[in-house]
């Protein structure tokens, strides 16, 4: 794959998002977003599974201001592999308004981990989605988890719901806070009372160190971005899932735009409308304050809480 040739069929991020009608609480954090390159400054990793369009830190921070967020958590995207330079650069130039989640290999030195910490990194991401990454042995991941736990960092895990049973023992042995990306990608056609989603809720219920991002309705939805049946909201088939998680675990949920939305081929969400999704899954001001401010601040800026 050439460095700059975008993966065919892959949509670019939404250029002129609407202004959300929902007013975010003061200090709201977009706790899951990425930067891509720019490729000529921060080359994409040779082992990547896709080549994205560019999505720079300046464009990310313009979106932050447009939507009304105060801060970002920039999560290492798989197209950059374990080369964290673009994410670190974004954190360092944010004036303290961004923290990061890195991808690291076992070979990383303690000094390099400390450098990441100084740049604002507070977690590592372990990815188990087969279309995105090659397999990394679990003993390597556990060793990394042990080292980063000592820095007070957490582990972000990304996996598909069908893989949770097989990954359960590994996840439950992680020695630090564990944050699940996008609710563990439930198959929403199975329904909120499915065995599959019940297992995810049990995972959170039985393990107080497990948090979840209630993000990415645009990836999980089958009904899509159009409001249907007189409903006001887009992505309505995802609402019961996210709402269940927010209401049962109000102190362990995070929300993020997922901008610039890697790997979307059927539609690209208007980020303003994604923000308008929030009050459907966190219907009270108290839940919104926890989801958007108190929880991400506790995890990423504990020194300010
Ligand atoms: O579902 C995805 O394709 C996806 C990919 C990435 C990444 O490539 O890092 O991150 C995400 O949060 C979601």
**Broad structural category:** alpha/beta
Poorly predicted ranges: none
- Described by the principal axes of the CA atoms, the overall outline is globular
> Percent range for helical residues?
25-40%
Tell me the series of helices and strands, N- to C-terminal. Answer: EHEHEHEHEHEHEHHEHH
Bound molecules: 2-oxo-2H-pyran-4,6-dicarboxylic acid
Strand order of the largest sheet: 1-2-3-4-5-6-7-8
Report the sheet-strand fraction: 5-15%
Number of helices: 10
Task: Please identify the oligomeric state.
Answer: single chain
Radius of gyration, in Å, reads 18 Å
Care to describe what's here?
The chain is α/β, with parallel strands linked by helices and 305 residues long. It is built from 10 helices and 8 strands. The protein has helices at 57-67, 85-92, 110-119, 138-149, 164-172, 195-206, 217-220, 239-248, 271-281, 285-300; strands at 29-33, 71-75, 98-102, 121-127, 154-158, 178-180, 210-213, 253-254. The protein has an 8-stranded parallel sheet with strand order 1-2-3-4-5-6-7-8, with helices on both faces. The protein binds 2-oxo-2H-pyran-4,6-dicarboxylic acid. The site of 2-oxo-2H-pyran-4,6-dicarboxylic acid (0GZ) has 9 residues, from loops. InterPro entries: Amidohydro-rel (IPR006680), Aro_Compnd_Degr_Hydrolases (IPR052358), GLI/LigI (IPR047874), Metal_Hydrolase (IPR032466). This is Amidohydrolase family protein.
């Amino acid at each position: 794959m050439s460095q700059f040739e975008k993966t065919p069929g892959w949509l670019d991020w939404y250029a002129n998002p609407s202004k959300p009608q929902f007013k975010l609480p003061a200090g709201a954090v977009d706790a899951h977003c990425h930067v891509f390159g720019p490729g000529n400054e921060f080359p994409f990793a040779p082992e990547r599974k896709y080549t994205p369009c560019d999505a720079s830190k300046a464009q990310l921070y313009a979106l932050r201001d447009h939507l009304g967020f105060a801060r970002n958590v920039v999560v290492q995207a798989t197209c950059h592999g374990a080369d964290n330079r673009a994410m670190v650069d974004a954190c360092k130039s944010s004036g303290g308004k961004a923290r990061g989640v890195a991808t690291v290999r076992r070979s990383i030195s303690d000094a390099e981990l400390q450098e990441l910490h100084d740049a604002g990194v507070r977690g590592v991401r372990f990815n188990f989605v087969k279309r995105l990454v090659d397999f990394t042995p679990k003993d390597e991941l556990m060793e990394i988890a042990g080292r980063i736990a000592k820095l007070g960092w957490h582990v972000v895990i990304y996996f598909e719901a069908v893989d949770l049973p097989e990954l359960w023992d590994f996840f439950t042995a992680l020695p630090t806070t564990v944050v699940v990306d996008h609710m563990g990608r439930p198959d929403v056609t199975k329904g909120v009372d499915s065995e599959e989603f019940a297992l995810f809720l049990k995972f959170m219920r039985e393990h107080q160190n497990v948090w979840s991002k209630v993000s990415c309705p645009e990836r999980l939805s089958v009904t899509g971005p159009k409001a249907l049946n007189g409903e006001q909201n887009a992505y309505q088939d995802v609402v019961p899932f996210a709402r269940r998680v927010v209401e049962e675990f109000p102190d362990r949920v995070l929300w993020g735009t997922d901008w610039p939305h890697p790997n979307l081929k059927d539609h690209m969400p208007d980020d303003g409308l994604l923000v308008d999704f929030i009050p459907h899954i966190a219907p009270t001001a108290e839940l919104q304050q926890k989801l958007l401010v108190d929880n991400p601040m506790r995890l990423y800026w504990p020194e300010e809480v």
